[in-house]
Specification:
The complex is a heterodimer. By secondary structure, chain A is an all-alpha fold. Chain A is built from 9 helices and no strands. Chain B is 43% helix and 17% strand. Chain B contains 20 helices and 13 strands. In chain B, the strands form 3 sheets. In chain B, strands 1, 2, 3, 4 and 5 form a 5-stranded antiparallel beta sheet that branches. The interface between A and B is large, with 71 and 59 residues.
Chain lengths: 174, 574
């Protein structure tokens, strides 16, 4: 039913629907990669632009969300390389997140987020896709182009790094 | 805490923390507009990824390879070495030691033999390291390409997944899991010197652009801060060497006029931080407000509190009852001669989202840059909006736009004498009369210029300044515009201005002032300022920003010359 509706929708309508459904999620993903609100907005626009241009190429082999995240991630990685000056001193502290945080966000939540944003790129990548965006292990591995055990290894290393922030109830390695 | 719980905790924390990122309500329209205007020719050149090139090279190699080594046992040790070396990046960035080590491991795994003269050279410890590295580099590049590769791609190259038997695949998976479990059980990964070196090279070529032929000339040193558990890594290169090889338009971390590079004697340097495990923490910015500050936040706070007391009569108890945030920041004051905003100590009293008082103190001199009561500012702003709306309406009725851009989008500086004269004739009487009727509006605009309010409607003070004088067109008795410019140019040259900088600058401004119709004036601003991105005209820190020359329009007599060393705004340039 969903597919039939999508097929019937014009590309413009489809874009509007994608933007409505995924803009907020992509903004957060792009911010997590770029640590800058303006850059994140640029990246989101670029992502939807690329998606719009390649509607025809989307064969539905993965979920729409996963497809968009993949485009957004590549866009962010490109931006991080080209806009090198924007990477200067990108150390994020919890208080730096005040400008983008919900007023009710707890200090511990901001600290955990800051700690995730400070993870080494490979670990951060895995955490954003698997934990934050809730993609499956296979989807994460496909996007990162690594094996599932490698994803698992990165997640495990990331959890170790984040232990102090997740530790409220004691992490049980299972 | 289970994996599911970790997922929920992270999702909640990140969603909560990042939900304030404002969405663009017109995003769909923007994308559609871009798509409609995208004719295809402006599309970015598709960048072929390193891995794609690698895959292509690999296919070619595989096609021609007569001997495919798929013996898992002989490869296991090699893969472990490769992973432990944290093999990644472009070969050009590797140190000679790393290249030789990788080749050593390849030989031990039987992938290469000393029958190859290059392998023999690379592994001959009696030879200079640079020679060995060069030989190793050739062998490695031949096998894996010079583009990006890492342990994963090496494993794919030597042990292609599609060629593994089910048993080999099972062995590989078991080994991979074992490797990660051992890796994870290590408490910490001590950082090796070669890893620090390679990180430095990666920053040079990934974040910035750097001539590869100079990679070997970069000296790397580091300090470890026991307390912070952080490495500060310094990369340095001889200035002369770098400048000779630097390509036009190339932007490198070493460039001193960028925000990160700095000069130290005859070398150019930049610094970055790594944590104790080698995670990249950021590039140290020697030009950050904090790095430029001479005052501590504690010292500046005393001045800020006094400023509020003297200017706004705010007593200490009122301040003490409010939460305070203090930080180093870039102030709103642009310092032309430094090409950047002035470093400030910023103090904000009030709850987040409900700021009450705000003070910026010059972080070097302790001068009060601005100090205001946000609530009072908002009240005045409301009133000022009404004034502006009234004035705008009056101008509109007279067929004049209040914004200072012409139809070509050029700001009033770039207007022709004719355009400026027409605008002045139409707008000036309306503005002057309105100001006469609303002296409180004049005071408000003066206060805005003096940074006494939080909000600054920037074009309005400019508009008022520009109506201070009447502009017209030269009469038949006046010397020509070219002659006036030539006179001003000669004055600037006689005061030591660079001929090249004057002649290549396109930002000179010329006015014909007819405020006193009996004594019209030519006013010429000779600009010596070029854009920050204009590397052909770097800013000399001690040189003036320009010269403002006023002359009698009829006789050409120079009446006033002002050397501009500080940008004091539009008012002195009209």
């Amino acid at each position: 039913m969903e597919d039939a509706r999508e097929a019937a929708a014009s590309p413009q309508e489809r874009l509007a629907s994608l933007v409505k459904e995924h803009q907020a999620m992509l903004l957060r993903v792009c911010y997590a990669y770029l640590c800058d609100a303006e850059d994140a907005r640029d990246a989101v626009q670029e992502t939807f632009f690329k998606a719009y241009k390649s509607f025809g190429g989307f064969r539905g082999e993965c979920s729409e969300k996963s497809w968009l995240i993949q485009i957004a991630r590549n866009t962010c990685l490109d931006m991080r390389r080209s806009a090198w000056h924007r990477r200067v001193d990108r150390r994020i502290r919890a208080e730096d997140l005040d400008s983008v945080a919900h007023p009710e966000a707890a200090g511990e939540e901001k600290e955990l987020t800051a700690a995730i944003l400070q993870l080494p790129p490979k670990l951060k990548d895995a955490v954003i896709l698997y934990y934050f965006q809730g993609l499956s292990m296979q989807e994460t591995a496909d996007i990162l182009r690594i094996s599932q055990p490698s994803v698992s290894g990165r997640l495990s290393r990331a959890r170790k790094r984040l232990k102090a922030f997740l530790e409220g109830e004691g992490y049980d390695e299972r | 805490m289970s994996d599911k719980h970790v997922k929920e905790t992270i999702q909640q924390a990140m969603n909560h923390t990042l939900c304030g990122l404002s969405q663009d309500p017109f995003l769909t329209q923007r994308v559609l507009w871009r798509a409609a205007n995208d004719k295809g020719e402006a599309q970015m050149k598709k960048k072929i990824s390193g891995s794609l090139i690698f895959a292509f090279v690999m296919m070619l190699l595989l096609a021609g390879a007569a001997l495919a080594i798929t013996n898992w046992d002989s490869l296991k040790q090699y893969f472990e070495t490769v992973r432990t070396m944290d093999t990644e990046g472009e070969l050009a960035r590797w140190s000679d030691e790393d290249k030789v080590s990788l080749l050593q491991a390849m030989e031990e795994a039987g992938l290469v033999t000393r029958e190859d003269g290059r392998v023999q050279t690379a592994l001959d410890a009696s030879l200079p390291l640079s020679e060995r590295g060069c030989a190793a580099s050739r062998v490695i590049a031949e096998r894996y390409g010079e583009d990006y590769f890492d342990s994963h791609t090496v494993e794919q190259r030597e042990f292609p997944r599609e060629e593994r038997s089910p048993q080999e695949q099972a062995d590989y998976t078991q080994w991979d899991q074992q490797y990660w479990s051992q890796w994870n059980s290590l408490e910490k990964q001590p950082l090796t010197e070669s890893r620090i070196y390679r990180d430095t090279m990666n920053h040079l070529t990934e974040i910035g652009e750097f001539p590869r032929s100079l990679l070997r000339d970069v000296q790397v040193s580091y300090d470890f801060d026991e307390q912070q558990r952080t490495y500060t890594v310094t990369a340095a290169i001889k200035k002369e060497l770098y400048l000779a090889k630097r390509e036009t338009g190339q932007v490198s971390l070493f460039d001193p006029h960028q925000s990160v590079g700095y000069e130290s004697g005859d070398t150019l340097c930049f610094q970055f931080w790594l944590d104790e495990f080698g995670a990249f923490l950021g590039i140290k910015n020697p030009n950050s407000p904090q790095a430029r500050a001479r005052l501590s936040l504690e010292e500046a706070q005393v001045i800020a509190e006094k400023a509020l007391k003297v200017r706004l009569n705010v007593d200490q108890d009122a301040l003490d009852s409010l939460p305070l945030r203090a930080t180093y920041s870039e102030s709103g004051e642009y310092v032309q001669e430094e090409g950047r905003f002035r470093a400030a100590c910023t103090f904000i009293w009030g709850e987040k989202g409900d700021t009450r008082y705000m003070v910026d103190i010059d972080a070097q001199t302790g001068r009060v840059i601005k100090a205001f009561d946000w609530q009072a500012s908002e009240a005045v702003l409301e009133q000022s909006r009404a004034w502006m709306a009234q004035l705008e309406e009056l101008l509109r009725e007279a067929g004049v736009s209040a914004d200072l851009f012409n139809r070509q989008g050029e700001y009033i500086w770039q207007w022709s004498l004719q355009e400026r004269a027409e605008w002045s004739q139409a707008a000036r009487p309306i503005v002057r009369s309105f100001l006469d009727e609303h002296p409180e509006f004049v005071r408000y605009l003066e206060d805005v210029l003096a940074n006494r309010y939080a909000q600054s409607p920037s074009s309005w003070p400019n508009l008022i300044s520009l109506t201070q004088y009447a502009y017209g067109l030269p009469d038949h008795q006046a010397i020509s515009q070219d002659k006036a410019y030539e006179t001003a140019r000669e004055v600037a040259l006689s005061l030591g201005a660079s001929r090249q900088y004057i002649d290549e600058n396109k930002n000179h401004v010329i006015y014909y002032d007819v405020t006193d119709p009996n004594r019209p004036l030519w006013k010429v601003h000779i600009s010596l300022i070029f854009g920050d991105a204009d590397t052909a005209h770097p800013r000399e820190p001690t040189a003036p920003l320009g010269y403002f020359v006023v002359m009698d329009a009829h006789t050409g007599e120079v009446l006033m010359v002002r050397e501009r060393t500080v940008n004091t705004g539009i008012r002195e340039l009209v």
